[in-house]
């Protein structure tokens, strides 16, 4: 079956962003008529690579060959012209337009916008089992149907190489099976699929070839017929991180936070969190491991009072705080390092000292009664800048001007001030440099020794293992396993996170 | 220190460009219809006569109050385009209340100001409630409320007002409730209205509220980043309603200096358009108390001084409306350009700082 | 969904058909109006004179609403319609004085288009907040028209600093046979038939070609926006510009075109005010009709048919204030019936609280009708605004504005 010419050949691809090397020395070869899986952790550089192949970004080094021809892709339009199509993880669809309108948009010349297009859509839909009605509004479609529409869009434009960015992240298992059925139809018709994922069992189920990325480069290939999940996880995770050293336990007997059977449903009545129970004692770090999008963000927002649980109870110390809102919880001593510091942690255009006040508006030293205590806040910001080594020209600098690591150190310093009793740390070292990472780890450890209870959510398994006293694994809004970090390996966690047997 | 100087210079850059642009456009328009721009500018830049100086102060005060009202919304990320309706209906209510003279003397003034603020807050509160409970954009609802307010006031005035010849107005204030003002020049040059002081107090109050109080911090935080505000414990709906009503309450005061200064009733002497001027000045002054003061002064100067044009030039006074409009549009455009340029500079600075580190993360 | 339709049977399909087809809604509407006319004995309610006045009042609102539609379908909120319309009144006056009415209309469109260009530059190129830019354009539009009138019109024949009278209007059309026949039927005051005849009479007797043009523009806009690939691309910019960009569409270009057309349409609306609705330019003659156009567009749920209905409703009430208060009073009965019908429909859809609120309003209006003899003129003036507020408050879930309407978009933000 495989013909002589490879569908895609990427050689020595490199891409640098200001201050960051996103890709370097990337080599990928996709054989025609196959599903090629590209796996790696978050931040391993998969997204950048895809954008390069789809012409959204241009590589600084390296070459791209499509079906044997060297190409330079300056825009998605040019990528489409050479037969490369992409399905983004966040669908690029207009809800208020019909399936047909979304399909023909930008490609009206191919089959018109009327019956010609309708026929072609039906043809594609029937050929690959997409079950798409051209005249339905996209807003009426479920997630799986939207994804099929995205794939059909790409085929409509004549693409033979289809990039799928984490296509299963939003699907339930039955939908995943159906998608794989569609993909097999596609490859049997001679198309090639680049399948990006970090769910190992899915990759093993669908892929013909596997390439693994880590830290911006390709670190190996594997044959799904012979490879095991353990081997893949090892390749993905590596072990070159400066991993935090585990210290002796400081866990006390006093329970600081407990959740019992907490359930959260969305507006459509689907469970985002199902019957979650956990306890964190003073001096304990509870780590939550999980593939992103399995309920971690919702868990944090529920504890922080930004969402109120549908059922269950949350206790902070001896107090029932289930229905408390954010401000009251913060006043009760919860510190919060948010996952997305730009959206939830900082006022980017405000100076550092005002950012010191954010989230602490009602407490000294930020305020005195109804008033903001400017002097107190400024003085305390100086303290944070010094103690937490925030590198900034001064406390009047807007926080936007700081590097990610220094922004994060400022947030950590802020959330540690005022003697919190509980710290919620969501990906505390994401996107920060190695030096800042070590510093943040030290701060968390020191606070733990002083009796702080910490809920730590991280995608970095070494970080979780090194810092936590206990690790819970979350999958589709449920806890699916409890691990002792002294005994567990990243590979074990990876297996549990992706739903494999623990 | 140099950093500070640089940021001040950057802050002044946008208004400076905007003023130059609006002068340019005005000159071109005047030249295009065949009048003499030179004559126009020399008339405009003459030192105003004492009477006009008094007028400028009074107008500045009212425009400034309107600007503060608009700025309260803007700083929260709300567009209260309904100042016009709020101060119309509030002025009418206050004038009716004051004219009825339930209270005597100064108590009547204070009570009437309270009425003005309450009515203004209630009127803007409709838009606030619609936004928080039904998700209706405050822009559309306040535009509608503007028109409804103007018509409603017309109805009440026609049916319950005092008719005098061809005109209708509310009952005149009793002399004990008029405040007059103080005459810096000769008596015939008019008075600076007593309640103009309200503008000054509001400016200071606005500054204190915004920069010194927790509420002000919450308001600014909500305006800068709704998501960060929420995560910090601010209740966004409550903030929307409160700031909308606060903006309306301040709007209620816009015309009060004139009412208790010279007008003495709500009728033909009522000055329309102050609400939109206030929005324009808030944009011009970047919602900063001092910036808006200069903006209000500039707009008042242009409006009042343009009266001189009818003598001695063939340029009609309405030319300054073009100047004002162009100034606003130019200032928002240049601010945006400066902002983008600044962000680029900052990013470059950060990337310089980071060179050498090779983290694999992308964001 | 198909299962439920099948089980509830035929009754539902009849109701659905009656509430979804414009033809039926129109017929039912005319029936109710006719009923009210006969009950209250106010033939003026659908007299040809009233309809003619209503058409004249509708046209400028309609043109502005269409302008709003074009801009907002491409994702740009155009509050500046009012200012562009004002510019249009001046443009129409100036160019008609020199070159006759048709060049005058082009001039109105040109001046509106200049206003649109300002808006496009500010919002699309520079990413300024759409509302802020719109407010500034309204200030500039009003100022420019006032100044230019004062500077130029006093030297013209029939002109003064604030007006320019005696402008030649675009031609009027009468279709001889139809007009007379409709006239004779209308005079019989039969139920429904005469009411339709009045409408036909108004449409065939001395109707301005500019009115016909504006009505035609509704159809043209609908066809262009919904039946061509150009229109599809334009609408995609208002729904999801990032998606459009990934498909190789030049979003800036489409937004520019949309806003320019928007300004031109608002300008034509202004031109209509100066040339047809009155016999010349006068300062401030738009009287907020740009905003009413915006309201009509929202009322019409950002759709051509809907905004036509909105503009007709607002135009009709606008025209009634010029006529005797008796017919306005009978209109209360019409509103009451309408509200009660709407309440019944909501009850049928099992929206109990909504139904109760609307029914309560209906009862109140009915009581108002029964207990009074006339309606103050101001209340008819307020109608469009109050209606829009109600539509927004009650129907905000049903309204569907373009998903990316008013949101800043910058090239290269996709992916």
Summary keywords:
heterotrimer; A: 502 residues; alpha/beta; Rossmann fold; 6-stranded mixed sheet; globular; B: 363 residues; mainly alpha; ABC transporter involved in vitamin B12 uptake, BtuC; two-stranded antiparallel ribbon; two-stranded antiparallel sheet; disordered C terminus
Most extensive chain-chain interface = A-B, 59 and 39 residues
Structural domain count of chain B:
1
Radius of gyration of chain A: 25 Å
Return Rg of chain B in Å.
23 Å
* Extended strand count of chain B: 4
Number of strands of chain A: 22
Q: What percent of residues of chain A adopt helix (DSSP H or I)?
A: 25-40%
CATH superfamily of chain B: ABC transporter involved in vitamin B12 uptake, BtuC
Largest sheet of chain A: 6 strands, mixed
Helicity range of chain B: over 70%
Mean pLDDT of chain B: 88
| Sheet with most strands: strand arrangement of chain B | 1-2
Shape of chain A: globular
Order of helical and strand elements of chain B: HHHHHHEEEEHHHHHHHH
* End-to-end CA span of chain A: 38 Å
Helix and strand layout, with pairings?
The complex is a heterotrimer of chains A (about 500), B (about 375) and C (about 425).
Chain A: E1 8-17, E2 20-30, E3 35-39, H1 46-53, E4 61-66, E5 69-71, H2 76-81, E6 84-87, H3 99-104, H4 108-111, H5 115-128, H6 143-156, E7 161-165, H7 173-188, E8 192-197, H8 200-206, E9 209-214, E10 217-222, H9 229-237, E11 255-265, E12 271-281, E13 285-289, H10 296-303, E14 311-316, E15 319-320, H11 326-331, E16 334-337, H12 341-345, H13 352-357, E17 367-368, E18 371-372, H14 374-387, H15 404-416, E19 422-426, H16 434-449, E20 453-457, H17 461-467, E21 470-475, E22 478-483, H18 490-497
Chain B: H1 2-32, H2 37-45, H3 50-75, H4 83-100, H5 105-134, H6 138-160, E1 162-164, E2 167-169, E3 181-182, E4 192-193, H7 197-212, H8 214-224, H9 226-231, H10 236-252, H11 256-263, H12 274-284, H13 289-305, H14 319-354
Antiparallel strand pairs in B: 1-2, 3-4
Helix pairs in contact in B: 1-14, 3-7, 3-10, 3-12, 3-13, 4-5, 4-6, 4-10, 4-12, 5-6, 5-10, 7-8, 12-13, 12-14
Chain C: H1 2-8, H2 10-20, H3 22-40, H4 48-73, H5 81-99, H6 101-125, H7 130-152, E1 163-164, E2 172-173, H8 176-186, H9 193-204, E3 207-208, H10 209-227, H11 229-239, H12 241-246, H13 251-277, E4 281-282, H14 289-299, H15 304-320, H16 325-348, H17 352-371, H18 377-395
